[in-house]
Each structure stands twice: as C-alpha cells, then as structure tokens.
C-alpha cells in the first residue's frame, strides 16, 4: 500500500514524458507511462533526462516509474493525463472508457479547443478537465526531453486539484487553475498558428521569428483568427505582456524593432522548434486540423472567410504527403497573399472531416 498519488500519462510523447518525468522525480507520486513501443523501449533503456531553457536538469532512472504499451495502469490511477495528439482523442476516450473507475480525474493536456468534450462523451462517470501545457518540449532521443520556451500548465479549476497541487509544487511545475479555460485555449491556439509557418520554414522558432516575412505570414493567419473570434463573440485571454489584438501588428514591425521587443514577450530556446515541425520530420500526421482547422471551421460557421488558414492547411497536408516541405519567408508570404487555388468552402469541408464542430456548449 502507498499514500502516493497514482498518475497515469496516457500517450507518452514529448509533453507527456516531460510533465510525467518531472512528477516522477518527486517522492509524492507514482507515475506510469502508456507509450508506443518505440518510446517505451527508449524509456526503459535510458530513463528520463529532463532540462529547460533556464538550466534546470532532472534525471529520473527507469526504476522510478512504470512504462508499458498496454493501458492497464489507467484502471488504478487517481489522475490520468491524456497527452495524445488531437487526432487520437476519440480512440483514447474509447480505450479509457473500459478502464477508468468512476470519479477518476482525467485531464486533457492537448492542443486545440474541444478535446476534453470528446473525452467526456466516453467517460461520463469520470471528472474530465481541460488543460494546456503552455510551453514547447523537444525530444532529443535517449530519454532526453527539453523545455524550450517559458510557460505554465493551466487546468480548469476543480476541488479535486487540491490533492494534485502539492505534487506539482514538489516537481517545480507551475499549476495554474483557471475558472474559465476556454479563453486561454483560444489565446494559445492563436499563438500556435505559427506552428504551421515554423514547420514550413524548416528553421528553429527563434530564427524563423527573427525574419519579418515569416512573421508577416503568422500575422495574416492571426488577423483572420481575430476576425472570426470577433464575429463569434469570443474574447481570447491575454497570455503575454502584449495585448492579443496587437500581436498581428507587432509581428510586422522591422526585424530590429521586433527583436528588441520580442525578448520581453516570450523566452525561446535557440534550438526549439514547433511540434508540427517535429511531426513532419518524423512522418507523423500533424495537428493542423486542430489549429488552423479550428479557425476555418468557426469561420465557416459565422460567415467569415479564412483563405490564409485554409491555404496553410493545404501546404501542411502536401508536406505530410511528401511534397514541398520548406519555403523561404518571401515565397510563403507570396503564396498566402495569392488567390486560393481551390474554393475555400471545399477546403473547409475537407478540414471538417478530420475535426469536430464543438462550438455549441
């Protein structure tokens, strides 16, 4: 018997391994990872070696945690963190429905807007909470995971989190409990519209964002997003010192101005890249349908055209299929400013096949 909180990381990718590893390093939790065979083999052989952009280093030997490809650990967990890609949320919900006990706290730590809603449809007796990891994690192999940007872990507030907070404190992780998480999710999504641009640039985030042409691409995508959210009556939260609505304008200033201001807005490791860039490199399906796709679908619903985000979806889909992968800033900006090659409604319909219309609440 143990008094430790039992935590299951369902879908141990970069985020799951980093967050779960930090928790496993404490004496306050027993952590189990559910992972694909490749990651499971890596963790068994090397353990976890975690670092961040501020110099923090945490090593967790394999004997400090459990890792398996079968999801049985979810059946005895007090808290289950779902960290799968958004496309796998439906399958995760179905799997967990056969395992989790009534009252288990299931927390979605995923990109996008509606993953917690998907999980709730399959887990009616569990306490399902939406959450977001606000920073970037890079996988360097051999159990090494690096936090490349600043940020916290934000979760919809609930009394059951009282038991989890001390574990996060012991791990040195900032847990922010939000009364209303949806504005935070939309704000994070707007920032994440850069993921597609970064993936198509082939550059680290800091280098990509140091070039005005790439920033102008992000600005175009964000301007569309703000137009859609304004029509829908959605106000995103303020996550940076810069008000959200001013971010598209800030992105278009000359490089020397942006570089001076940018350092005060967010800290990014020089080698950090977007998770979408990592997915393309690994030949995995990206989360473009849960980033730009969310903007396209909501735009279709409220009657606001979204040709820039629709074109980004097309370009990422082409890159996933082995077509052109890298663009210079000038080329990509010209591509996004040009007339769409196919009707926007056709693109939006294609996106809708991969996402869900989860706006009604």
What labels would you give this structure?
361 residues; alpha/beta; Rossmann fold; N-(1-d-carboxylethyl)-l-norvaline Dehydrogenase, domain 2; 2 domains; 8-stranded mixed beta sheet; 4-stranded mixed beta sheet; 16 helices; globular; disordered C terminus
Structural overview:
- Helix content is 43%, strand content 16%.
- With 361 residues, the protein is of the alpha/beta class.
- The chain has two domains: 5-179, 3-Layer(aba) Sandwich (Rossmann fold), CATH 3.40.50; 185-352, N-(1-d-carboxylethyl)-l-norvaline Dehydrogenase, domain 2 (Orthogonal Bundle).
- An eight-stranded mixed β-sheet has the order 5-2-1-6-7-8-11-12, with helices on both faces. The protein has a four-stranded mixed β-sheet with strand order 4-3-10-9.
Secondary-structure content class: alpha/beta
CATH superfamily of the largest domain: NAD(P)-binding Rossmann-like Domain
| H/E element order | EHEHEEEEHEHEEEEHEHHHHHHHHHHH
- Kindly report the spatial arrangement of strands forming the biggest sheet: 5-2-1-6-7-8-11-12
CATH class of the largest domain: Alpha Beta
CATH fold-level assignment of the largest domain: Rossmann fold
N-to-C terminal Cα separation, in Å? 41 Å
Oligomeric state of the chains? single chain
Give the total of beta strands: 12
Low-confidence stretches: 342-361
Rg, Cα atoms, Å: 20 Å
Mean pLDDT, to the nearest integer, reads 90
Which architecture name of the largest domain does CATH use? 3-Layer(aba) Sandwich
The helicity comes to 40-55%
| Strand residue percentage | 15-25%
User: How many helical stretches?
Assistant: 16
Which sheet architecture does the biggest sheet show? Answer: 8 strands, mixed
Shape call:
globular
């Amino acid at each position: 018997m143990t008094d430790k909180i039992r935590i299951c990381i369902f879908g141990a990718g970069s985020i799951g391994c980093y967050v779960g590893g930090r928790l496993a390093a404490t004496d306050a939790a027993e952590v189990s990872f559910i992972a694909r065979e490749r990651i499971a083999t890596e963790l068994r052989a090397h353990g976890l070696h975690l670092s961040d952009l501020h110099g923090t280093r945490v090593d967790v030997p394999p004997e400090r945690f459990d890792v398996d490809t079968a999801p049985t650990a979810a059946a005895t967990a007090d808290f289950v963190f779902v960290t799968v890609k958004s496309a796998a949320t439906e399958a995760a919900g179905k799997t967990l429905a056969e395992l989790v006990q009534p009252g288990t706290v299931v927390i979605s730590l995923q990109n996008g807007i509606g993953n917690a809603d998907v999980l709730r449809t399959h887990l009616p007796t569990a306490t399902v909470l939406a959450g977001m990891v606000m920073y970037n994690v890079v996988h360097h192999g051999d159990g090494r995971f690096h936090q490349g940007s600043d940020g916290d872990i934000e979760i919809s507030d609930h009394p059951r989190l009282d038991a989890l907070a001390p574990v996060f404190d012991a791990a040195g992780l900032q847990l922010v409990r939000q009364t209303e998480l949806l504005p935070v999710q939309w704000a994070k999504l707007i920032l994440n519209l850069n993921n597609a641009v970064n993936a198509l640039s082939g550059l680290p985030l800091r280098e990509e964002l140091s070039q005005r042409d790439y920033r102008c691409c992000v600005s175009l995508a964000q301007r569309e997003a703000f137009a859609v959210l304004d029509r829908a009556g959605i106000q995103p939260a303020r996550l940076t010192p810069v008000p959200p609505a001013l971010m598209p304008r800030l992105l278009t200033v000359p490089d020397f101005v942006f570089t001076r201001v940018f350092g005060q807005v967010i800290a990014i490791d020089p080698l950090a890249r977007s998770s979408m860039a990592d997915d393309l490199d690994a030949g995995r399906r990206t989360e473009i349908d849960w980033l730009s796709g969310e903007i396209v679908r909501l735009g279709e619903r409220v009657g606001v055209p979204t040709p820039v985000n629709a074109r980004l979806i097309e370009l990422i889909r082409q890159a996933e299929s082995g077509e052109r992968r890298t663009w210079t800033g000038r080329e990509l900006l010209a591509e996004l400013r040009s007339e769409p090659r196919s009707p926007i409604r056709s693109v939006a319909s294609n996106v809708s096949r991969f996402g869900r219309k989860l706006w009604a609440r």
